[in-house]
Amino acid sequence: MIDMFKNFLLAFTCVMGINACSSTHTELQANAWQQVSAKGKLHQRHEASFVEYKGKFYSLGGRGIKPVDIFDPKSSTWQQASKPPFDIHHFQAVVYQDAIIIIGAMQGRYPKETAIKNIIYYYPEQDRWELKEEIPVDRRRGGAGVVIYQDKLYLVAGIRNGHVGGFVPWLDEFDLKTRQWKILPDAPRSRDHFQAGVVNGKIFAIGGRTTSQATKEVFSLVVNEIDQYDIHSQTWTTLSAKLAIGRAGTSTLAVNDEIWLLGGESNRPSPAHNEVDVLNVTTLKLTSFQPMVEGRHGTGAILYDNAVWTCCGAGTRGGKLELKTIEKIELK
Known about the structure:
The protein is mainly beta. The protein has one helix spanning 2-15, and strands at residues 34-36, 48-53, 56-61, 69-72, 77-80, 94-96, 99-102, 106-107, 114-115, 118-123, 128-134, 145-149, 152-156, 159-161, 165-167, 171-175, 181-184, 195-199, 202-206, 225-230, 235-242, 251-255, 258-262, 276-280, 285-289, 301-304, 307-311, 326-330. It has a single domain (31-330), classed as 6 Propeller (Neuraminidase). The strands form eight sheets. The protein has a four-stranded antiparallel β-sheet, with no helix packed on it. Strands 2-3-4-5 form a four-stranded antiparallel β-sheet, with no helix packed on it.
């Protein structure tokens, strides 16, 4: 009876032209976020990444040199692997073939972190780290968005001088087969402390800020605009949709024909944002989604077994409250 009433209300709002009818297909068929209990040791971390490889979840990097934590969603258990060769933070890790790739990352302490010069590979099955090619000196930066599409890696925007300044609108392509680097057209605007997403040959730059410790504007200069890059036509477009609540340190995830933006931090000290926004890449409509149980920033999100998962990150602006909780939302 309750479900029938909900369906009636949805139909009524769509007929009346109320915004609810613009909700995405996934949104209308999702449960609520729930925290997941887990066994084993987990290292709390932020400015890190959270990715899936062959059914296991990898939490890696972040400030300080910490072992890789591996989560088995079937047994809900954590186990540890090796440490990286040095501190690696402020990056969006991506999975390609048998490796987790890190590019566009930082190392060092706030506020004068430096961009890491190499592309870094972590091989989960061998528990092995390897430094690969050097990034061209004049294109190095951290806090950038990273996606892979058809054997090519795309490095989007970022910041050259830690938190001091030097944010850029750059877009670069690295061919993972030929190992060749290519400079592509700049985005319409700079942004850093964000993650990118790709669906159907289009890259979406959403969230982030232009960090400027030099002018004492570390958290406030958030970017509300959403920029889209068409890989095939090599052109940028700024969407009419904008974020209602701008924030950086967000997690970005492609879910079917949607781009999800989770959490983040802004100029408010506490708590971190728990808001979730969903962009339908077909209609280019942006809708608010069910908020997470906890606000968090500086981590990642995973689509696995018909659910969206996230963990770790920081629960307040900056990194004083590092989280060790896991939560997920199941898609019906």
